[in-house]
From TrEMBL:
Protein name: ALA-interacting subunit
Topology versus the membrane: Multi-pass membrane protein
Cell location: Membrane
InterPro entries the UniProt entry points to: CDC50/LEM3_fam
Domain of life: Eukaryota
This protein's record includes keyword Transmembrane: yes
A Pfam family hit: CDC50
Alphabetically ordered keywords of this record: Membrane, Transmembrane, Transmembrane helix
KW Ribosomal protein (keyword) present: no
GO cellular component: endoplasmic reticulum; Golgi apparatus; plasma membrane
């Protein structure tokens, strides 16, 4: 296991603290960040001059608690399975992210508003907090094609049983696939900076969305974003459209390129665990062996057996 993890070549770099250019179009604020991944950002064993494909693209988030009760309970499983849920009682757990309010209306409760009364799908703060940064990669040979299909980056069981787009309905707004006015006016953080391309074109069935909705047990976690099915030459230029805020909770964002082995990604936890357990077993084994030699007791020794006599209690 240790050798398998050591064979993985992984490059990672923090980018939330890198200055970038602010977009000036209608979908701003978006910060466009450009950085390079070089050999100094990489660890592990490398074969050849570059990274041997396939190369997996991950993003890493630090100090974000997906397990916080107010966050992970703010979701509706029936909605995620493709059911149109219109009962306010059933959607109470999604408060306050349940319905659309039209920012262009002077009265957000005005029944004439084109969005008034329409429910958000999916609802809840967990879905609303979905990671929406996007990445583009290039090396010396030119742009790198990243496979971000749901079939490539998500689990088959989740695609079959947990996440499905709903049938068409005029009572809900599928905000992952629809341009929806927000409290910031024309800004829609779920489209690219040009406002013409969706970040989650598959809606609930989008691979990036499904990966985000899979609960991370620790505050520092990584999630699969894409796969590059070719060798990659270093240095790699990464262009990032940064939308997902971390400053408010003191978090960090990292971009990762990594190879894999039969054990998965680079993780020494299992190997170190086996080393520790094996070492403890060896120490206890030596201890009991020495005790057996120094305080030997013959088999069948009756000196320590208390025999009761008839009539004695």
């Amino acid at each position: 296991m240790y050798d398998a993890s050591s064979d993985i070549y992984e490059c990672m770099k923090r980018y939330d603290n890198v200055p970038g250019d602010q977009a000036t179009n209608r979908n701003a604020p978006v910060t466009v960040i450009r950085l390079q991944l070089t050999e100094d950002d990489c660890v592990g064993k490398r074969k050849g001059r570059g990274i041997e494909g396939p190369v997996f693209v991950y993003y890493r988030v630090e100090k974000f608690y997906q397990t916080h009760r107010l966050l992970f309970e703010s979701r509706n499983e029936e909605q995620l399975r493709g059911k149109i849920v219109t009962s306010r009682t059933d959607l109470e757990g999604c408060e306050p992210w349940i319905e659309v309010t039209d920012p262009n209306s002077t009265d957000p409760t005005d029944p004439t508003s084109s969005y008034y009364g329409k429910l958000l799908l999916p609802c809840g703060m967990f879905a609303k907090s979905v990671f929406n940064d996007t990445f583009e990669f290039s090396d010396a040979a030119g742009p790198l094609r990243v496979d971000t299909r749901a079939e490539t980056i998500s689990w088959n069981t989740e695609r079959k049983h947990k996440y499905h787009n709903p049938p068409n309905s005029g009572r809900v707004v599928e905000w992952l696939k629809t341009y929806v006015p927000t409290s910031q006016g024309e800004f829609n953080p779920y489209r690219t900076d040009t406002g013409t391309e969706l970040i989650f074109p598959g809606g609930i069935e989008d691979g990036h969305f499904m990966n985000w909705m899979r609960l991370a047990g620790l505050p520092n976690f990584r999630k699969l974003w894409g796969k590059i099915n070719q060798d990659v030459a270093l240095p790699v230029t990464v262009t990032i459209q940064s939308r997902w805020p971390v400053k408010s909770f003191g978090g960090e964002k990292w971009i990762i390129l990594s190879t894999v082995t039969w054990l998965g990604g680079r993780n020494f936890f299992l190997a170190y665990s086996y080393f520790i357990v094996g070492g403890c077993c060896f120490i206890f084994g030596v201890f009991f062996l020495i005790r057996h030699w120094t305080d030997y007791r013959e088999l069948g020794d009756v000196d320590f057996v208390a025999l009761s006599q008839p009539g004695n209690k």
